[in-house]
């Protein structure tokens, strides 16, 4: 179990782009042999690509106008400071 | 674009309110979407996203122009969403499990014509499912996962948006990915 835990930490380092070449080799050599770790890694990458497939949402129409209407009154200090 | 935004901010700081509307226009979709993903609810998302732009305007003098405006704006929006989540009474958490009823949540207690919080927006079932799974992550993992994978900020930028050390970002993103994996593995 300990060995898997160690590899899972490496998986996360890999996903954050913070793994060195040697550790990366170590990780993928292990993943090839170990089904549990292979599944774990695939589940991680798949869940990431799954959430990335979520559609973009747009702000409701009139959003900017609604914000602009709610702003406190314009500061006049510059205009009248002559 | 970054340059144009910078110029608009200078004008806003000098008291030109109209210059702010271009800034709102430019960031509205991203900020609204971020709020929606954090809150899982269209009405709250609109409310909080508007509030974020208003707060940013009111506090514009404290914005340091050497920093990225988007990071600053996201920080305001994220803090507001987290405040809103905290203020929801735990009793009314729709996704809280009902005691003694394994896997049953308050959602199942709603009458069928009450729209679910995230139901109104998505066009597809999968999309609906994904948003629901995201909005059920604990908030501290949710914000990180959204910022990293949906809004594609770097770990360093996330540290600055959430105002936490980069080491904490890494720990949370690690746990957030594991939480997400557990939720989505059987899809």
UniProtKB/TrEMBL annotation, chain B:
Coiled-coil region: none
Segments forming domain RNA polymerase sigma factor 70 region 4 type: 129-180
Keywords: DNA-binding, Sigma factor, Transcription, Transcription regulation
InterPro entries: RNA_pol_sigma-70-like, RNA_pol_sigma-70_dom, RNA_pol_sigma-W_bacilli, RNA_pol_sigma70_ECF_CS, RNA_pol_sigma70_r2, RNA_pol_sigma70_r4_t2, RNA_pol_sigma_r2, RNA_pol_sigma_r3/r4-like
Transcription regulation is among the record's keywords: yes
Matching PROSITE patterns: SIGMA70_ECF (PS01063)
Domain RNA polymerase sigma-70 region: from-to ranges: 27-89
Superkingdom of source: Bacteria
Family statement: Belongs to the sigma-70 factor family. ECF subfamily.
Protein name: RNA polymerase sigma factor
Organismal lineage: Bacteria, Bacillati, Bacillota, Bacilli, Bacillales
């Amino acid at each position: 179990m300990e060995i898997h835990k160690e590899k899972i930490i490496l998986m996360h380092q890999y996903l954050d782009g913070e793994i060195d070449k040697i550790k990366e080799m170590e990780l993928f050599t292990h993943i090839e042999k170990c089904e549990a770790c292979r599944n774990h890694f695939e589940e991680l990458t798949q869940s990431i690509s799954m959430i990335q497939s979520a559609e973009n949402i747009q702000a409701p129409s009139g959003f900017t106008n609604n914000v602009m209407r709610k702003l406190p009154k314009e500061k006049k200090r510059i205009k009248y400071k002559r | 674009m970054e340059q144009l935004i910078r110029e608009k901010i200078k004008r806003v700081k000098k008291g030109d309110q109209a210059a702010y509307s271009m800034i709102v226009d430019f960031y509205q979709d991203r900020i609204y979407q971020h709020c929606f993903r954090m809150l899982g609810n269209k009405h709250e998302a609109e409310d909080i996203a508007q509030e974020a732009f208003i707060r940013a305007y009111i506090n514009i003098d404290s914005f340091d122009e050497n920093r990225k405006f988007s990071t600053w704006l996201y920080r305001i929006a994220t803090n507001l969403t987290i405040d809103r989540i905290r203020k929801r009474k735990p009793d009314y958490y729709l996704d809280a499990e009902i005691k003694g009823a394994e896997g049953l949540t308050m959602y199942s207690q709603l009458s069928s014509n009450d729209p679910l919080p995230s139901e109104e927006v998505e066009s597809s079932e999968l999309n609906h499912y994904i948003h629901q799974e995201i909005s059920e992550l604990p908030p501290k993992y949710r914000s990180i996962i959204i910022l990293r994978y949906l809004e594609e900020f770097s770990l360093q930028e996330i540290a600055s948006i959430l105002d936490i050390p980069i080491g904490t970002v890494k720990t949370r993103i690690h746990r957030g990915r594991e939480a997400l994996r557990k939720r989505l593995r059987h899809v």
